[in-house]
Design goal:
By secondary structure, this protein is α/β, with parallel strands linked by helices. About 40% of the residues lie in helices and about 5% in strands. The longest helix is centred in the C-terminal third of the chain and has 24 residues.
């Protein structure tokens, strides 16, 4: 009997602890006094809510406009590269704001912000990548293009002075740069050392230059995300798989690729600190995607993920160790979808599931809250 009561108490405390990590929202009074009224998002497929499918006629882009993409979000695709919602969606909801409409949906309501992110976009212009024999195959809407969209939009709504509006807005610059590295690894046939030497400094410079431009526009709160531990993603695990067991960590992720992601993140954080020193009155906050992902991976079974599918894609070819093949991506006729996407972290081998994004967003909200003067 005593043992039974002890188990019940333990289960109750465990449940309370779990619920704590799922409840990032403060009181409504705090939100009404200190909540932003707009979000502006620059980035790539991690945050695109529909720009690419409105911009491109490429077959590779069109899959995002069709099921099974969006299957968990009202049962229809929106251009999000997932089965449902993204991190930026959960962050907007936590701020009691509407979901961000894509910039290229011209008839949309932009009163609470705009999403400029484009799936497949790069931090560097396609001309720079081409000079280094790297092809950017999906879109030319790089970070500089998105910044120009932002400037054009602000001119159209503010005419002369945006200061009051922008002091109550949050700007996300990224995540961006992941595709620069993807194209370097997968299409430019560059080694890890080459990508690290050739691309990382320029990617970080592009991001920080954009942050400076956003601050010049009047932004006072800027969030700059880092990169995920890419060695845990099915696309990288498939392409770089090896029989060397020492190449993998305890979660069966590739240590070398995770080390590359950490190098990028370290360089980015150092650059952001320099910006903080130059702009002490602006909140420039690093969003730690790397450790947010690790948190989910470490607690995957507790969060309801299948421990045997942590490195597998839910939507994929149906074969291979990671259910991922570059020639049979999610959305093609040969692809299949796992019965319960909520038990998978990876949706299509490149992007994450709605549930994974939800938990990562919750972690980020808890981490960002004390670092910003007026957020959440």
């Amino acid at each position: 009997m005593a043992s039974s009561q002890t188990n019940l108490i333990f289960s109750f405390l465990l449940t309370l602890n779990f619920l704590f990590f799922l409840l990032p929202l403060p009181s409504s009074a705090t939100i009404s006094l200190c909540s932003p009224n707009a979000i502006y998002q620059l980035g790539d497929s991690i945050s695109d809510t529909g720009n690419l499918i409105r911009q491109s006629t490429s077959p590779k882009a069109s899959v995002f406009a069709h099921l099974p993409y969006g299957i968990s979000f009202l049962g229809q695709p929106t251009g999000r590269c997932s089965n449902g919602l993204l991190m930026i969606d959960y962050i907007a909801m936590s701020l009691r704001l509407p979901l961000l409409n894509p910039y290229l949906a011209k008839d949309s309501d932009f009163s609470h912000g705009v999403n400029f992110a484009v799936a497949g976009s790069t931090a560097l212009d396609s001309s720079f990548l081409a000079e280094n024999d790297i092809n950017s195959p999906i879109t030319n809407s790089s970070l500089s293009i998105q910044l120009n969209w932002l400037k054009s939009h602000l001119k159209s709504i503010c005419h002369t002075d945006c200061e009051e509006k922008l002091t109550r807005s949050i700007f996300f610059v990224g995540e961006i740069g992941g595709n620069d590295y993807n194209y370097g690894f997968f299409r430019g046939l560059k080694t890890m050392d080459e990508v690290q030497k050739i691309l990382v400094p320029h990617v970080v410079q592009s991001i920080t230059r954009t942050v400076m431009e956003v601050i010049k526009l009047g932004a006072t709160q800027v969030i700059v995300p880092g990169n995920f531990p890419i060695g845990c993603l099915p696309i990288y695990l498939t392409i770089f798989q090896t029989n060397d067991t020492e190449a993998y960590n305890e979660f069966k992720c590739l240590k070398g690729l995770n080390g590359f992601a950490m190098f990028h993140n370290d360089q980015l954080q150092q650059a952001l600190q320099q910006l903080r020193n130059a702009h002490p009155n602006v909140d420039i906050v690093y969003a730690d995607y790397y450790n947010a992902f690790k948190w989910v991976l470490h607690r995957a079974p507790l969060l309801g993920f299948d421990k045997d599918s942590l490195q597998k894609a839910c939507c994929g070819s149906g074969g291979g160790k990671y259910n991922f093949e570059r020639r049979n991506l999610c959305g093609v006729a040969e692809a299949t979808v796992c019965p319960i996407p909520e038990t998978y972290i990876s949706w299509d081998g490149i992007h994450l599931t709605e549930k994974a994004y939800m938990h990562i967003a919750n972690w980020l909200i808890r981490d960002l809250t004390p670092k910003l003067k007026c957020l959440f």
